[in-house]
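Suppose a colleague, Dr. K., hands you the sequence of a protein chain of 150 amino acids and asks what its three-dimensional shape might be. Before reaching for any lab equipment, you can write down a predicted structure in token form. Begin with the sequence itself:
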Amino acid sequence: MKVLFVCTGNTCRSPMAEGLFNAQAKALGKDFKAKSAGVFAPEGFSASQEAIKVLKEDYNIDISNHKSKSLTRQDVEQADLILTMSNSHKRSILMQYPEYSHKVFTIKEFVGLDGEVEDPYGMPIDVYKKTAEELNGLISKVIQKISQER
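The predicted structure, expressed as tokens, is then:
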């Protein structure tokens, strides 16, 4: 099972989601793998220092080697499930790749919740902590749901 997390620049939310997902899946012994990309991502940037710090200190997850990448057709084709942080990310993907609409959801929509995961970019570290905590909880629900469906 290949899950693709998508945000805007692929430096905050989606790399945190990728790191959290892979750590949870590994801890549960699941054969699931996550990657991440951005709808408007520059190539090769590190994850934000705040995202790296929060995952390392609060979850013992190292995303310091992350490099941002822009979403490609190959990413969309290879993913079994594409989870976006916001409705605008979802719309952007569906405009480019409408034939893959069956596997594109916002992360909250996928687990039956309303709303979006707010972008912590440029905000204080405590906002990143809240975002990571929110993503961690959502990812637990995602893993539970895909485990039941397999």
